[in-house]
Each structure stands twice: as C-alpha cells, then as structure tokens.
Amino acid sequence: MTTTPPPRTLHSYEPRQGHGLPHDPFNAIVGPRPIGWIATQSAAGATNLAPYSFFNAFNYVPPIVGFASIGYKDTVRNVQETGEFVWNLATRDLAEVMNQSCAAVPPEVSEFDLTGLTPLPSTRVRPPRVAESPVTFECRSTQILQLQGVDGAKVDTWLVLGEVVAVHIDQALLKNGVYDTANAGHILRGGGPADYFTVGPEQLFKMYRPR
Predict the structure, then answer these.
(1) CB–CB of 23/191 below 8 Å?
(2) Which residues form the Flavin reductase like domain (predicted)?
(3) 3-state secondary structure at position 154
(4) Cα angle for residues 156, 160, 161 (degrees, 5° grid)
C-alpha cells in the first residue's frame, strides 16, 4: 500500500526572476562538491594554482574530469595554450593554504610562491603537482566549452574537460589495495559564502547495486 507523503510548504522560484532569499541556494543544494584545485602552466612557463568549486569526474574509461571557471581566468587561458592541467586533492590540513591560492593576483605571480606550496614535477604533463597533496591527476585537455543558456546566449563560464593520463596516490591511503576515501581527509565546498565540509568514517555506509 502506497502512503501519501505529507504536504510540504515550498519556496518556489524561477532563477531568471531571482530567488528572493538572502543568499542564492543553488550552490548549497548541489553540494557539497569536490574541489578542483587546478595547477596549470602558461606557454611562457608561468605556473598557476587555483581552486574551483565546480569540479567532478565524468567518465571511467578513459577517466575524464572537468571544472568550470566563472569568467575567463588564467587557468582557462593556460589550458588553452598548453592543453594540460593537474588536479590536486584538497584535504583538511591543506584547507587554509588552498584558500590562499584563490587570491586575485597578476598572471606573473605564482600561487606556489604565494602560498609556500612545493611544486613537484609531473611525469606526463608540464604543469607541476602540489607536493603536499596526497593525490594528484595529471590531465590533458579534451574539450573547452563556453556554456550557454536555454536561449542560446553565451555565458561567461568555461567548462574544461580533460583525460587523466597519470595518477599519483599516497600509498598510506591504499588499504588492501582499495582507496580509503573515509580517512583521506577530503574537503568539499558547500553553499553560502564560506561553508566547507569534510568526509570521515562517520559518514561512511555501504550499499551495493541490486543484482
């Protein structure tokens, strides 16, 4: 027997007409999200490191990840020039320094120098990895798309997709060969002006697909 769910009092709105709230809830609803901590290098060799709150994985084989930049920023330009980028896992112990890397600085200023993080040479691409990060993906760009609305109008947001061509994992995070997400210290971006979340063993539950 199917029961009818209790009625809800809804706050409904059309985004183009405004949300009518103190802060746009969209980011908080679609979250928490993995952080795209992206290292790039310009054609002239200048390094850049910046966090992006719109980041995720999109395919298994080949492994494809992507991030969206609101505004055409140094990171997007560097990827267009070189076709390469590196994703670095942001963990709880790196949260403050990750936040420092989003400071608005000129293109010639390296966030590695700004934050004191250690650039570690990559094995398959030119941009360096963050040596302090326990997991890194070396990526080659597959597509760069300027987003558009349903009306076809271009949006000042750029989606960068890349194939992961090399993966580096701290062996301490491999338990019997299985990556230990629960204890890796991942941080994720929530909504509001400053909300972040962590992942820990207390959030872990297992659920297998039906056969």
Answers:
(1) yes
(2) 30-181
(3) strand
(4) 150
The tokens for 116 are: 């004191």
Query: What is the C-alpha to C-alpha distance for residues 48 and 174, in angstroms, rounded to an integer?
Result: 29
Contact between residue 148 and residue 163 where contact means Cβ atoms under 8 Å apart:
no
Q: Where are the alpha helices (DSSP H) in 18-110?
A: 26-29, 74-82, 95-100
- Over residues 73-126, the pLDDT tens digits come to 999 999 999 999 999 999 999 999 999 999 999 988 999 999 999 999 999 999
34-59 burial: b if 16+ Cβ within 10 Å, else e: bbbbbbbbbeeeebbbbbbbbbeeee
Tell me how many helices (H) and strands (E) the chain has: 4, 14
CB-based contacts of 118, cutoff 8 Å, min separation 6: 112, 130, 131, 132
Of 110, 37, 100, 89, which is closest to residue 198 (Cα–Cα)?
Answer: 89
Kindly give the pairing relationship between strand 154-169 and strand 64-70: antiparallel
CB atoms within 10 A of CB 74: 20
Nearest to 159 by CA among 38, 13, 31: 38
Map tokens 């980011």 to a residue. Answer: 27
pLDDT tens for residues 9-65?
999 999 999 999 998 999 888 889 999 999 999 999 999 999 999 999 999 999 999
Cis peptide before 106 (omega within 30 of 0): no
